[in-house]
Amino acid sequence: PFDVDPPITIDADLADWAAIPNQITAKGREHITYDTGQWHGPDDLGAVIHLAWRPGGIYVAVEVTDDSVHQTLTGRDMFKGDHVEVYVDLTPGAEPERTIFGAGQFQFGISPGSLGEEVGGQVLRPELYVWRPTDAEQEGGKVAAKRTDDGYLVEAFMPFSRVKATGVRMHK
Fold first, then answer.
1. Which of 100, 104, 144, 158 is in the most buried spot, having the most CB atoms within 10 Å?
2. How far apart are CA 127 and CA 37, in angstroms?
3. In contact, 101 and 107? CB cutoff 8 Å
4. Nearest to 58 by CA among 7, 12, 24, 94
């Protein structure tokens, strides 16, 4: 949904998401796509996903349920630890037969960092990383994260300019 004023504040507090509809709950075996034999139920891994957008970019907040939170890597390697990946298609009607990424499509990751724990003598900060398009900017946007009783919460704003998307608007 389109976010109205005031814009969401990226602070790992979901109070400002209360009026935004259409959260997505992914808490069952059908949502596990990697190493399915290691999944032991909804307390092991699941999520409630919140999405919104404004002309300047996309907002993502994810309440992750995870009995073992672990992130030791950053940047392009964040996928080897706890993170959230987002795939967006701003041109869903264009080239419906395509099977690879094309214009208007992008993929980015949101890492909660090490959530205050030291990794190799340092605390890893929450971050955004863009995998596609491959020539995307790697600076810009905001991320906040915090540990919760049953996992972690991560909240982010990804500017469309970072993925070279211009003129994003709502279709009628």
1. 158
2. 29
3. yes
4. 7
- Taking the C-alpha atoms of residue 70 and residue 166, their distance in angstroms, rounded to an integer, is 35
Amino acid 172: pLDDT:
63
Q: Which residues contact 1 (CB under 8 A, 6 or more apart)?
A: 20, 21, 22, 51, 52, 53
Q: How far apart are CA 35 and CA 33, in angstroms?
A: 7
Q: What is the pLDDT of residue 61?
A: 97
> Could you tell me the pTM of the whole model?
0.90
Distances (CA, A) of 36 to 28, 30, 31, 33: 11, 10, 9, 6
* β-strands 105-111, 84-89 pairing: antiparallel
Q: How many residues does this entry show for the chain?
A: 172
Burial of 19 (0-12, 13-18, 19+ CB in 10 A): exposed
pLDDT score for 100:
77
pLDDT at 24: 92
User: Can you name the residues that pair with 167 across neighbouring β-strands?
Assistant: none
111-to-82, 129, 141 alpha-carbon distances in Å: 7, 8, 13
**Ranges of the chain with pLDDT below 70:** 34, 171-172
pLDDT at 128: 97
